[in-house]
Specification:
By secondary structure, the protein is of the alpha+beta class. The chain has a single domain, classed as Arc Repressor Mutant, subunit A. Helix content is 37%, strand content 18%. The chain has three helices and five strands. The strands form two sheets. Strands 3-5-4 form a three-stranded antiparallel β-sheet. Strand 1 and strand 2 form a beta hairpin. The longest helix is centred in the last third of the chain and has 14 residues. The chain starts with a strand and ends with a helix.
Length: 84
């Protein structure tokens, strides 16, 4: 299956019939820093930090970096898609 690049996300993604962001799945990232998560989702930094503080978006630390697992970010987006 050939990979293609989505213009608004700087990662390779699977075709639309796979699971993930808006029907697409990232294939090269296991986790995102806050800045990358903002860029990948189009959500603001303050918004993400508030969801993290509320416990709605899990994070973990490696050294001083706060990271969000790709599957946690995808699940977060899916929950909000279902609420809309």
């Amino acid at each position: 299956m050939a990979l293609r690049h989505h213009p608004s996300v700087n990662t390779a993604i699977q075709p639309d019939d796979s699971k993930g962001f808006g029907g697409m799945q990232t294939s090269d990232k296991l986790s995102y820093g806050i800045k990358d998560a903002c860029e990948a989702t189009g959500l603001g930094r303050s918004f993400l930090y508030q969801r993290i503080a509320d416990g709605e978006l899990p994070t973990f630390k490696i050294g001083s970096r706060t990271l969000i697992a790709a599957n946690d970010l995808e699940e977060f987006l899916q929950r909000h898609r279902q609420q809309a």
